[in-house]
Amino acid sequence: MVEAPLPGREGGEGSTAFPKAALMPVDLSMVEIGEETRIDTGFQEFNRVLGGGTVPGSLILVGGDPGIGKSTILLQISQNFAASGCKVLYISGEESLRQIKLRAMRIGELKGDIRFLSETNLGQIKETIYRDQPQIAVIDSIQTMCCEEVTAAPGSVSQVRESTSLLMQLAKRSGTAVFIVGHVTKEGQVAGPRMLEHMVDTVLYFEGEKNASYRILRAVKNRFGSTNEIGVFEMTEKGLKEVLNPSEYMLEGRPVNASGAVVACSMEGSRPLLLEVQALVSETAFGLPRRTAAGIDYNRVNLLMAVLEKRCRLPMSRLDAYVNIAGGMRLSEPAMDLAVVTAIVSSYRDLPVPADTVLFGEVGLSGEVRSVSLAEHRVREAAKLGFKRCLLPKSNVSRLHVPQGIRCQGIAGVEEAIRFLFDEGKE
Q1: Which of 352, 351, 347 is nearest to 257 (CA)?
Q2: Which has the closest alpha carbon to 360: 330, 346, 381, 329?
Q3: End-to-end CA distance of the chain
């Protein structure tokens, strides 16, 4: 048996071998760099997630559940690119040109130099991009693309790997910024080899509940910016609309003076986000209490209830508990601990937390409230939305510059927070 080289690797057309000059090591002091130029997507939220805009020659993977809005948002930013003077090529392997036009009519009139192509053969696509030299190219989707040199079916591991490799070379050599759509599996990962995410420059996930109007664009990998940023969009009849103040949007319709409802502040990258934490506790009708958590780690809720039982002597072991982050958000930040604990106690005592109060802080196993990062950013966001009082870790207060209109109360432990809110804080 003779080992044959992989298709397209023999050194001819489509070869991935680098020129000999590229293999010569150089001193970084000899490398010239200019001011980084990014292309505006037309959406402040999308620019935030990318780190300030699209970098020419980058390869960006956008993943998400079917019907979440991946194709819609890429068509919208293609429209924005073209309207700003960029040359755009939109390539679809899933829709005909007629279908694309029907979808484009829904989001508005297309202006500028934007062309469409319905094709799955990457050889043809490669020639078209080299010939037309667009600044932006959109591939929808990578699972429908195929290389003629690979005998496997489109969507297979080998086809996805080779297709992504070819697009990566194409982006670097031509300077075209390439957006590729990736389908996801039942586990929520992009379909295909895990190597796919390592090959691209940026990985974005489009998240959200299908029955909710908002969508979250989250960066999980970004060679040109932070990986913790999120962008918030609202799905409308005319496509996706960016939400510039997500805190206000998330708190719309929250109940006033209802027990078990608390406003907390979480950080998503550099953005503070105010959310409502809801809890409902009641006597269990069975021998084993039931616990449910939506939007927050189930094991974390059990841990916090154990802290309440041991440190505050509350009978949590015989109570059913249901904890929910309103709006369908999913959070894992420990700074939400104090809000979860307070919501549980509020529901247990059937006493509401004042509506003008916001809380954040990590709770330790000894019942202490530990410091969190970017406390001042959180307090400023609360003050901007009209909250009058903030409960936060005592260790954060000394380093805090408190904005006007809000009063900050440092809390050292869970017992102190409960006493302040439900016994002493009723002024």
Answers
A1: 352
A2: 381
A3: 85
pLDDT tens-digit map of 19-54: 554 568 888 888 777 666 899 999 999 999 999 999
The 10s digit of each residue's pLDDT in 139-186 is 998 999 999 888 888 888 889 989 999 999 999 999 999 999 988 776
Outline where DSSP puts E strands in 78-200.
88-92, 114-118, 136-140, 177-183
Parallel, antiparallel, or unpaired: how do β-strands 202-207 and 59-64 relate?
Answer: parallel
Length of the chain: 427
Q: How far is 386 from 356, CA to CA, in rounded Å?
A: 8
Spatial separation of the C-alpha atoms in residues 239 and 257, rounded to whole Å: 36
Distance CA 174, CA 172 (A): 6
> pTM for this structure?
0.79
Q: How far apart are CA 374 and CA 228, in angstroms?
A: 14
CA gyration radius for the chain? 26
As beta bridge partners, residue 5 has: none
Beta bridge partners of 64: 183, 206
Q: Is 57 left (phi over 0), alpha (psi -120 to 50) or beta?
A: left
Helices 70-83 and 97-107 cross at an angle (nearest 10°) of: 70
In terms of DSSP bridges, do strands 271-283 and 261-268 run parallel, antiparallel, or are they unpaired? antiparallel
Place of tokens 């079916």: 153
Cβ atoms 230, 269 nearer than 8 A: yes
Tell which residue, 155, 190, 193, 210, has the closest CA to residue 328.
210
Contacts 24+ apart (CB under 8 A), 296-304: 296/323, 296/325, 296/330, 296/331, 296/332, 296/336, 296/340, 297/332, 300/337, 300/340, 301/340, 303/365, 304/337, 304/340, 304/341, 304/344, 304/363
User: CA triplet 59, 63, 67: central angle to 5 degrees?
Assistant: 135
Taking Cα atoms as reference points, which of 313, 397, 324, 309 lies closest to residue 360? 397
Torsion of CA 41, 44, 50, 56, to 10 degrees: 30
Both tokens of residue 112? 């500028």
d(CA 281, CA 290): 10
DSSP states along 313-361: ---GGGEEEEEEETTS-----GGGHHHHHHHHHHHHHT-PPPTTEEE--
